[in-house]
Amino acid sequence: MPKKTPQLIEDPYISRESAKYDRPIASREFLLNFIESQSVPVSHEHIADFLKYDDEDLVDALRRRLRAMTRDGQIFRNRRGGYLSFDHMDLVKGYVQSHPDGFGFLKPESGGKDIFLPERQMRQLMNGDKAAVKIEKFDSRRDRREGALVAVLERAHQSIVGRFHRDSGIESVLPDDRRMPRDILINRDVGHAAKVGDIVVVRITEYPTQHTQTIGIIESVLGQDNAPGMEVTIALNTHGIPHQWDEAVLREIKTFTGQVAESDKQNRRDLREMHFVTIDGADARDFDDAVYCEPRDKGFRLYVAIADVAHYVSIDSAIDQEATRRGTSVYFPGEVVPMLPEVLSNGLCSLNPKLDRLCLVCSMEIDHQGRITDYQFIEALIHSHARLIYDDVAAAIFESKGKASPEIMALRSDLDNLRQVYAALAKARKKRHAIEFETSEVVFKYNQQRKIESIEPIQRNKAHMLIEECMIAANICAAKLLKKQKIPTLYRIHEGPNSDKLPNLAEFLAGFGISLAVEKPTPKDYARIIEQIKGRPEFAMIQTVILRSLMQANYSPDTKTGHFGLALGDYAHFTSPIRRYPDLLVHRGIKHWIRQGNKDGFHYDLAHITSLGESCSRFERRADDASRDAADWLKCEYLLKHIGQQFSGIVTGVTSFGLFVQLEKLLIDGLVHVTALKRDYYQFDPVRHRLVGEVTKRSYQLGDRLQVEVARVDMEERKIDFDLIGSVGTPPDQNKKSRARISVLAKKRGQKRSRSLRKKSKIKKQR
Q1: What's the rounded Cα separation, in Å, for the pair 344 and 112?
Q2: pLDDT tens per residue across span 640-672
Q3: 169 with 150, same domain?
């Protein structure tokens, strides 16, 4: 029997529960504390007895709450129906990341290294599921823990998108997500209109077990894979991205109009006379930031105005709850799935020109060295004086190209002030040794049928950098304020290098005469290396390897880690509350401080903020994966029309099975399989990221420029195969002596294989 508690301790959250329910029951916090205090699992009946619940309605409400706590991973229910705390079981909770080859990893909620899950443990799991595992053993050779599944806490998918197949009368769907390698069997008792090859949505009716496959019914037929916009439809459904507004949200947005209400303009500082401008891309539709700068005796006064989303999105409103589920806007080629309804994201919270808008403004004093000497946050009313485009601003104030437009000429002195403050901020960035990576992006051009017409590179210019530095400055101030006032919030943290990858990175760099401290490299070390390799032909290759050595940035209430890449001790995201939920949380913290002057009474505590940090980081990765999938689809579709054509490309990845080559300008990746490398047998050198010929010693490594031909495009697998035509500028060794030696080597290997096969055949006959 569970141990008896002498008396019922008062539930500290009973007032909150009473406000929500007519007949409140024990809060989750109280139940969790009670279950943790027990030395053995406790049943639903025992908990009801302890709480003195005799009424059937209260007993049933308790049962539902315990099940919800189990579903949310707060407690565990064993096979006998007993509830116990995870702390008593020494289990690890986290989210599953599947691999196409069948194995997977559990990413612990509490942080730390991922836990390896072999194929047999993955049979009951799907990518994204929340699970609890126990550590079975430690693999010292690979330096990793291996886990065994104890319970699936939450399923990530209720439906799956894939391609419909029929084979020998058995119907199945192959998931579009390559991280789900097992087919879903279709229940034939439920009719459908799908044809072989159709892209369909399957609703899961039975999840996989150790011995059975996933079973589902076809819910809808999306069509053939060449239908316009199919890449976005598939990505949304594959990654479970919310993209429809529910009735509660639609009811709330009916209260908004296109104009700022006069009553909302009260009690705000009126900054409408200041010449704020927005500077964005030519195709931008929402404008969440505007900038203005004035010269001062000792430097500049820079104003960064951000749409006051928190004014319109109340905590726990239907819009807020939906924004929490989405976490971020998701950007696809040619369209966006917004975090907030368009009446806000493209309307009231978009700083459109010539319109009054409510903003939260960060006002900063910046000296000529780019140091922020003072700052304050203001609830303000602004009026954007112009909607400017990056290319036009860069041409006018940085490049002095051609005649500027009348709009830019009217604001020329204001833009010159922005150029000067940018120069100061860039100086400070260089002094603190922020890492300056050079990245490339492309834009997809469509025809009238929304089929891809061309892929063009995006040129990043100094106007982009100007706005970036202004936003970074405001983000720094937001982080410093909330940290100083001890208001719980989400910081953008970047832990820096992955310690497991540093030894190989140091060895790789040493091959180019570059030193790196393996123990604890700093941003200065990385910035120095990037500066050293600029202008080298191997620049892109070395930068790629360096990038892969760094950890991924995420959101956390951690105030100590800082941002390694930007070389900053304090950093938060403040500048995009239209499209990122962490920014909205930062705004709420700042507005609370403006009005209260302290942290007392702030809605969010540390536990709540921590949970939101985990979900926002997860949703950010989900959005990135979905955007990448859609882009990969379009790239495959584009190259289908170019099979047999040749392109120049750069080696971006090297594995034991071949070379990944990215086509220059198009930024499309494909594989040159190792069998396509002629005239030799190649060995993989993982440290130097290269394949080396056994006879010719010819090597292919990261950064090599190659001429390739498009050989095959698989739309279903989203894979592109290239044939190697030759190296650009360095023709492969083709002398007769090398070919003769390779021929001898091949002959010897053939003889060895023949002897091996004869030996196996003899053994088989003896059996």
Answers
A1: 38
A2: 999 999 999 999 889 999 999 999 889 999 999
A3: no
